[in-house]
Design goal:
Shape: flat
Number of helices: 4
Radius of gyration: 15 Å
Structural class: alpha+beta
Distance between the termini: 27 Å
Length: 91
């Protein structure tokens, strides 16, 4: 946490990535007093999409998450393997 390194958990659905991430986040909070933020990737994409042409700005959406000491983005891609990732999601 002090070094500012990231952690990427990658694996098949149901392998426990979210559970392990929650445990790591718990340690960051209890041991280091970190202020966390946790967002589902699809919600984050939706907030960014809604900021385009809406009342909110992209900077305001980003600020909500970058103000946290630790940010967990869970399931950044659609969970349905049959659903294609959009150009917006790829960018």
């Amino acid at each position: 946490l002090a070094r500012g390194h990231g952690l990427l958990l990658y694996g098949p659905r149901g392998s426990g990535k979210s559970h392990l991430a929650a445990a790591a986040l718990s340690v960051a909070v209890r041991v280091f007093g970190a202020m966390p933020a946790w967002v589902d990737g699809q919600r984050l994409f939706a907030e960014m999409r809604d900021a385009i042409g809406g009342d909110s700005t992209e900077a305001a959406v980003i600020a909500r998450y970058t103000s946290a000491d630790v940010l967990l983005i869970d399931d950044p891609l659609p969970g349905n393997a049959d659903r294609a990732v959009t150009d917006f999601q790829q960018s």
